[in-house]
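Entry 12.
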Amino acid sequence: MYLSFSNAPVADKGTDARPGGRSRRRGVHTVSSTVITLGIVSLLTDISSESVSAILPLYITGFLGLSMIAFGVLDGMYQGVSAFVRIAGGHASDRLDQPKWVAFTGYALAALARVGLLFASGFAALTAVVTADRIGKGIRTAPRDALITAASEPEHLGHSFGVHRMLDNIGAALGPVIAFLILLVVPDGFHIVFVASLAFAVIGVVVLGLVVPNVRTRPRSGKDATAAVPKKRFEWGVIWQGPMRRLLAAAGILGLMTIGDGFVYLVLQARSEFAAQWFPLLYAGTNVAFLAFAIPLGRLADRVGRARVFVFGHLGLLAAYVVAAIAVEDILATVLCLVFLGLFYAATDGVLAALAAQLTTPETRGTGIAAAQTVVAVSRFASAAAFGLLWYAIGREQSMFVVAALLAVAIAVVAVLLWPFLSTPAGESA
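Predicted 3D structure (tokens):
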């Protein structure tokens, strides 16, 4: 892998210059410095968010003493509240052609929400904090992914998203480790974790504001590379009809069968001394696996088809559910569960964004990515809330088996739904 850190590469005999720090040497794929810098911003932000996520199940059910149903609602909100603003954030990015500053607004709001964690001590307060944090995430995600798309070669888009997600998940792996070390030294030091989370979030916002260039996503005029092509009428049909309609339906069906990781970890913790002792590090384990698989699966998606990798990546999620549900109390079961979860996220997160970008036009790209992510967020919100009730009604292992069976059916249904993509060599050109 060749990484280019120049925001303005100089064209020479063997190099073509590209906007946004993107360049191509003959026979060598370069990754834009914009992608790298956005990855660093995501790394810092994920240290912030994942250090909190890693302790939230214990903080809610143990330290605050709230019920499993309350955790299910909060976890569902953590997964789904961003859905209410994702399309707005993506559409604002498309219409204003200011993806960096739309993303900056989202990152800044999420950082402000970290302040609220220092004072939240009940369900209502936590609901407000989680809502603000996830709204920030919803605003920033699609404009950030539109920046990545604009700064990348189309034929290597999966690789670029893989590199970004790799850096993102270095932070996602470090966050739980930091939380674990803090709680190891100060057993009830949840608020110390919240302070550290705030610090990393602020640093990420500063790096984004001062270092990341505002790469425009709207096509430029051929005579003047700084002048945008005049605005066209926004084509909503690109988002809601044709190939994108199939993708949105598939993402929604699979999202309904995707429960929050916190539930899986609580199942492992309830029956395994290993998982109970190292609970915050379970999040780190998943993200280390994500980190290992992100670039290889991104490249694989570019070669064999992003739709294929996206659909069959859910087999990793199915395997994780089965391993969690089987009553095996040892380290191997926990490690396998984390590896399968990491593989699932590596095969679906950036790949879904790359697929949505491929199926939309430059003028609708941010909105298209946001629409796909919105469907996933809404469906996962419903899934998490329903699973909390299911756990309460029939028990943890039984509820895991039910969801695993439903997911197996959903994968088969989606394979039929996306068959036009799965049956073509590129996976996206049908």
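Annotation: Residues 1-28, 222-229, 426-430 have pLDDT under 50 and may be disordered. The domain at 19-218+235-422 is CATH 1.20.1250.20 (Growth Hormone; Chain: A;).
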